[in-house]
From TrEMBL:
<feature type="domain" description="Cysteine-rich">
    <location>
        <begin position="127"/>
        <end position="221"/>
    </location>
</feature>
<protein>
    <submittedName>
        <fullName>(Fe-S)-binding protein</fullName>
    </submittedName>
</protein>
<dbReference type="Pfam" id="PF02754">
    <property type="entry name" value="CCG"/>
</dbReference>
<dbReference type="InterPro" id="IPR004017">
    <property type="entry name" value="Cys_rich_dom"/>
</dbReference>
<dbReference type="GO" id="GO:0005829">
    <property type="term" value="C:cytosol"/>
</dbReference>
<dbReference type="GO" id="GO:0016491">
    <property type="term" value="F:oxidoreductase activity"/>
</dbReference>
<feature type="domain" description="Cysteine-rich">
    <location>
        <begin position="3"/>
        <end position="84"/>
    </location>
</feature>
Length: 245
């Protein structure tokens, strides 16, 4: 299958190794992966701030870059969800509709489309899994703990067979980290306090790494960890899964 690699703009600028790990992982799993060089921001920051009418250029450019692929895969739940719910173009609505159907978050694509149940990599560390809100509540990548329903987690499913990993069970498995896109700018104090609370749960379980499917959440937590001079590190799930043996 021909896969278009959709890398969020902040990942491209600040965490390119996450994009590289995603590319390499998909190749190892047998995909024909392509990175359209003309891609830019998907428009989520503007839409989150109430300016979705300014995302027209982003939408048109996204369609131009990703129409040719069988699937579009992104290592970010929030950006994936934005495209799934907000990609429209009056002049190319049929193309936009088609892309909305074939865009997937990385772990969702691996479990649901490639039908990979587990990955045998190597990561001998104690790890806490951060379930991002967009991925969990929007894309249904994992079960919400407030529901009386069977537990599942697509990211955790892929991590379970990683050699040496000690995946801890957090006290508050799906608590928001406080990032929230532009929320962390407009409500800085609340955002930071939420992030500090999220880190306390991981620290209580003595994790060495915090992982997740959204580098935006991890970036927020990373900033707080650095200010606390904590030894805990953040790592995107693609980087762990890419240790494929």
């Amino acid at each position: 299958m021909k896969v278009g690699l959709f890398i969020p703009c902040y990942v491209d600028q600040f965490y390119p190794k996450v994009g590289i790990a995603t590319y390499e992982l998909l190749q190892k799993l047998g995909c024909d992966v392509h990175f359209p060089m003309g891609q830019t921001c998907c428009g989520q920051p503007m839409a989150n701030s109430g300016y979705e009418h300014l995302t027209t250029g982003c939408n048109t450019n996204f369609i131009a870059n990703f129409s040719e692929f069988d699937y579009v895969v992104c290592p970010s739940g929030s950006c994936t969800l934005h495209v799934k719910e907000h990609l429209h173009d009056e002049k190319q609505e049929a193309a936009a509709t088609e892309i909305r159907k074939k865009v997937f978050e990385l772990t969702e694509f691996i479990t649901d489309i490639l039908k990979v149940e587990s990955i045998e990599g190597n990561f001998p560390f104690k790890v806490g899994m951060h379930q991002s809100c967009h991925g969990q509540r929007g894309l249904k990548l994992s079960q919400m703990t407030e529901l009386n329903a069977p537990h599942f987690s697509k990211p955790e499913q892929l991590l379970r067979n990683i050699k040496g990993i000690d995946l801890v069970s957090l006290s508050r498995k799906d608590e928001c980290c406080g990032f929230g896109g532009t929320f962390c700018v407009t409500e800085e104090a609340v955002s930071v306090k939420m992030g500090q609370d999220r880190i306390k749960d991981h620290a209580k379980h003595e994790v060495e790494y915090i992982t997740g499917g959204d580098m935006s959440c991890l970036m927020h937590l990373e900033g707080i960890l650095k200010r606390q001079k904590s030894d805990i590190k953040t790592i995107h799930i693609a980087e762990i899964l890419n240790t494929l043996v």
